[in-house]
Structure formats: C-alpha cells, structure tokens
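A reminder from the course coordinator: this example appears on the midterm review sheet, so study it carefully.

Given structure:
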C-alpha cells in the first residue's frame, strides 16, 4: 500500500492533509518532533514517527518504505543547505518516488526565497516533484495575527493598499491530497490562490461585518515591527514578514489563478466563508 510521510503534520496545512488522507486507502505517517503531543493534535489513530529536520539521526527511520513525501518547510528553518538539504538527501537515498512541496507564490521569480532554493535542490536531486506555490494563508489571521484582532480589533501589517489573493489552508490541503493520490502531477507547479484579491482595508470590513465588532486595518511598519518583536518573535523572522508584506504593498501578491478551481472542480473558499467558519477564534 502507498505510504505517505507528512512533515509539518501538526501545523496548519499538514494537519488538514492528514485529516483528508484518512478517507483514502493509503498508509499515512506523521513525521513529528514529539509523537506524544502530536497524538493530542492528530488523534491516537494516526501513526507517527520521530522526525526533526535539525537531527539527521531521525531521518533513516522516518523514510523506511516511504513512497511519497509531503514536505513543509518549518518557517523558522531558513538555512536550506544545513537544515533542509540533508532531509532531501535522505529522501533520495530511501527511494522516495514523489515529493509534494508546499512552496510559496513567486518562488519561481525570487531566487532568494528559501522555497525557491528548496525547489531547485529537489530538481537537482532528480526526485519527481509537484510544487504547490501558495499565496497568503487566510489562517494567518487566526494564528500570527490572532491577538491583534481579538484584543485590539486591529489588522496590523505593513501592506499598504496592496491586494492579496488569500487562500484557505483547507484548499491548499485538498489540492495537496489530490496531487498525492492522483497520477499526472509530477514535474508540475501550481500557483494556489483564492478567487478574489482584496486589500486589508476590505478584509477588515469583512471581519467587522461577520464578527459584529469594529476591526480596523493599520498599515504602520513601525508599529508592526515593535508589536511582533515584543510578542516574542525573533527579529530575523519579523524582518522576513516585513519583506513578505512589502511584496504585497508593491502589488505583487494579488495575482489570481484558476489552478485551485481546476484541481478541485469547485471555487476556492473565500474570506467571508473563512471568517464565518473561524469566528470563535476572535470573539
Ligand atoms: N503563512 C502563509 O501565508 C504561507 C503562504 C505560503 C507558503 N507558506 C509556507 O508554508 C510553510 C508553513 O506551513 P504551515 O503554516 O502549515 O506550518 P506551521 O503551522 O507553521 O507549522 C510548522 C510545522 O513544522 C513543524 N516543525 C517545526 N520545526 C520542526 C523541526 N525542526 N523538525 C520537524 N518539524 C518541525 C511543526 O511541528 P511541531 O508540532 O513540532 O512544532 C509544525 O508541524 C512555510 O514554509 C511557509 O513559508 C506559508
């Protein structure tokens, strides 16, 4: 039976990939740093294996009999040569037949992005792959930006008046599962976006209307850096976020594609549906 190793299994996308894979005839294995806490998140019926990108001793066991790898780069790991390449070497050695890599919109244009380096390294190794180049996740609003929205009714990001073609991670995961379980997706890259591109002013209006409380957008760069850093995020991570929001401000995050619709045979979820479905997070 097909064995699929899922990295980032306790994270936004991986968790949903595991949930969806359960209705298929395949052997799922969650590659996790802490199998006990993973059980609490994923349920005790999901097989898991100890795996840490930063600990090569965990690789060989994790890749035993694995046919396909769902690869998520943990956001904190930016040194691709040291922290991701060794895992890919181990995958190659173990004979992994197909990698579905959660990449980012624009990876093909910006060679400095860690995702771009990973894509090129996978190609260099010659492992058949599918790159899922996703736009901004809607779920950033209930994770990274949760407290700002909940406690101050504020969307704080230095994105100016730029538009973003937000995607729901439930759609990213649905596409990932499709490309894992169906033939014909090797050597392909998909740009996964929502069906509309909105400014953060427009997003704030949707939050206000769904939650029934005022949510305002603040594009202040200074306040963003101060707030993110004082919430405990390391400065290099905050600066990466500033870089990402700068691309939005420059109008580079609004591209809309039909890839999700074509792969799922339905429209992508929209921001209003997302805020309605997740509203308990901010109330
Ligand atoms: N946010 C966006 O808008 C966006 C858009 C496009 C692409 N992306 C890309 O998507 C990826 C993040 O996906 P996500 O949001 O689903 O993940 P996430 O929720 O940030 O979770 C990160 C996952 O990585 C695991 N992890 C962290 N360090 C690890 C290590 N050393 N070894 C093994 N596992 C480790 C975590 O497991 P633990 O339970 O052990 O912590 C967790 O499962 C990033 O590469 C990001 O750039 C994000």
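Designed residues:
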């Amino acid at each position: 039976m097909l064995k699929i190793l899922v990295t980032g299994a306790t994270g936004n996308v991986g968790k949903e990939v595991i949930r969806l894979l359960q209705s298929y005839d395949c052997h799922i294995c969650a590659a996790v740093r802490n199998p006990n806490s993973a059980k609490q998140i994923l349920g005790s019926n999901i097989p898991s294996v100890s795996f840490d990108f930063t600990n090569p001793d965990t690789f060989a066991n994790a890749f035993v009999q694995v046919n396909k790898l769902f690869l998520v780069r943990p956001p904190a790991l930016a040194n691709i040569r040291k922290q991701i390449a060794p895992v890919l070497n181990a995958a190659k050695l173990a004979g992994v037949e197909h990698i579905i890599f959660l990449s980012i919109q624009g990876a093909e244009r910006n060679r400095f992005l860690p995702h771009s380096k990973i894509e090129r390294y996978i190609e260099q190794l010659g492992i058949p792959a599918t790159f899922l180049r996703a736009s901004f996740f809607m779920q950033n609003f209930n994770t990274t930006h949760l407290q700002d929205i909940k406690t101050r009714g504020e969307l704080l990001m230095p994105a100016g008046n730029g538009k973003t073609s937000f995607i729901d991670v439930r759609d990213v995961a649905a596409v990932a599962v499709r490309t894992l379980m169906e033939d014909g997706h090797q050597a392909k890259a998909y740009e996964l976006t929502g069906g509309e591109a909105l400014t953060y002013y427009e997003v704030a209006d949707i939050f206000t209307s769904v939650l029934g409380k005022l949510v305002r957008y603040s594009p202040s760069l200074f306040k963003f850096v101060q707030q993110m850093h004082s919430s405990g995020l390391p400065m290099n991570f905050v600066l990466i976020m500033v870089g990402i929001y700068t691309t939005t401000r420059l109008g580079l995050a609004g591209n809309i594609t039909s890839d999700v619709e074509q792969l799922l045979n339905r429209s992508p979820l929209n921001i209003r549906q997302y805020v309605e479905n997740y509203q308990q997070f901010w109330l």
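The first strand starts at residue 3 and ends at 6. Residues 23 and 177 are 11 Å apart (CA to CA).
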